[in-house]
């Protein structure tokens, strides 16, 4: 008889969004709770359409107060400078010692465009094309410093080896970036790129640029089909599909320990069917639901050997089983690969 299929343990992430919270301590407490449950990462939403704190800045504050949990802020790429986006996420990776990710999002409304006054609102197709170019240029900027570019030699006064800094000379449809970056190459090489690939246009960006693709569905058959599509399309773009993690992004509303145990059963069923590589959970009430998730769902999954009991590594890439990318400029003598 053939050997039974052995699947990897599930990856678990959770959204810690919540309206009306303007204190970083609130988000720190949630991130610490998720870390206690050995989840891979937390996500924090952001939007120009509503009042709120800047997600990358909030998670930069959370980083020193946590040790292992990955930190993934939403970043709007439509009205922000790609160079500044790259710098902010690289800085978050340094502050967190290699636990940063980012989730590119776009803006398509005139109301949001008027907040900046730089240009009219973009349509969804153009906005997502630009988001893909931002993801591309961010990776190039992170690679514009080779890993050993810093010298820090006080005796000679040399801080950096200029031969190991690279101009990226990127020309996109709506922006150009020369580089190099102003932040050394992040600890992970590239912070993890997480894209909600539910809709067609962000899915096209995800198959080219995402390390983690989120799919909003409550149907395991649909999720499995979408996972296969994403992997096939990534392969068609010359990517290794084994380097793409596909997580089902599902809403959860837990009121009792019994509902939390049922969630563990659902996760186990989807895992057995090979539907997804894990789950991105979107709690109705993060404080209540995350407490039940960590207190009841996680122990059941750990008992069934579907979830780790401790973090075997220190970086978000290690949590996700993703290799640290090689530097495209170091390999090619200064030209992009």
Shape, per Cα inertia axes: globular
**What low-confidence regions span 5 or more consecutive residues with pLDDT below 50?**
1-6
Structural class: alpha/beta
**Mean pLDDT figure:** 93
Helix count, DSSP H or I runs of 4 or more residues:
11
The gyration radius over C-alpha positions equals 20 Å
* Strand residue percentage: 15-25%
Q: Main sheet: which strands, in order across?
A: 1-2-3-4-9-10-11-12
Helix proportion range: 25-40%
Largest sheet: 8 strands, parallel, barrel
What would you note in describing this structure?
- This protein has 337 residues and is of the alpha/beta class.
- The chain has helices at 24-36, 55-62, 82-95, 110-116, 124-143, 200-209, 220-236, 257-272, 286-303, 316-320, 328-332; strands spanning 11-15, 41-44, 70-76, 101-105, 150-153, 158-160, 170-171, 176-177, 192-196, 212-216, 245-252, 278-283.
- The strands form three sheets. An eight-stranded parallel barrel has the order 1-2-3-4-9-10-11-12, surrounded by eight helices. A two-stranded antiparallel sheet has the order 5-6.
- The model is unreliable at 1-6 (pLDDT under 50).
């Amino acid at each position: 008889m053939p050997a039974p299929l052995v699947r990897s343990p599930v990856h678990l992430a959770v959204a810690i969004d919540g309206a009306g919270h303007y204190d970083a301590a609130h988000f720190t407490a949630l991130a610490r709770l998720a870390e206690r449950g050995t989840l891979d990462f937390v996500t924090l939403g952001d939007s120009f359409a509503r009042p709120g704190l800047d997600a990358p800045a909030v998670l930069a504050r959370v980083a020193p107060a946590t040790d292992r949990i990955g930190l993934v802020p939403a970043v709007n790429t439509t009205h922000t400078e790609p160079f500044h986006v790259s710098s902010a996420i690289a800085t978050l990776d340094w502050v967190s010692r290699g636990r940063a990710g980012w989730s590119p999002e776009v803006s398509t409304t005139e109301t949001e465009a008027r907040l900046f006054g730089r240009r009219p609102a973009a349509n969804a197709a153009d906005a997502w094309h630009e988001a893909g170019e931002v993801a591309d240029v961010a990776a190039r900027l992170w690679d514009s410093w080779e890993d050993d570019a810093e010298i820090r030699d006080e005796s000679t006064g040399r801080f950096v080896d200029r031969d190991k800094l690279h101009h990226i000379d990127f020309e996109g449809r709506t922006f150009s970036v020369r580089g190099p970056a102003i932040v050394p190459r992040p600890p992970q090489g590239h912070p993890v790129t997480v894209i909600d690939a539910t809709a067609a246009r962000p899915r096209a960006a995800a198959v080219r640029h995402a390390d983690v693709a989120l799919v909003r569905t409550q149907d395991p058959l649909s999720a499995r089909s979408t996972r296969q599509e994403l992997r096939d399309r990534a392969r068609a773009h010359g990517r290794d599909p084994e380097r793409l993690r596909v997580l089902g992004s599902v809403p959860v509303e837990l009121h009792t320990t019994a509902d939390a145990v049922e969630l563990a059963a659902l996760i186990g069923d989807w895992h057995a069917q090979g539907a997804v590589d894990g789950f991105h959970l979107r709690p109705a009430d993060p404080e209540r639901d995350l407490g039940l998730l960590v207190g009841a769902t996680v122990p059941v999954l750990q008992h069934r050997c579907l979830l780790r009991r401790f973090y075997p590594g220190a970086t978000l890439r290690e949590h996700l089983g993703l290799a640290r990318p090689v530097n495209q400029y170091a390999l090619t003598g200064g030209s992009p690969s």
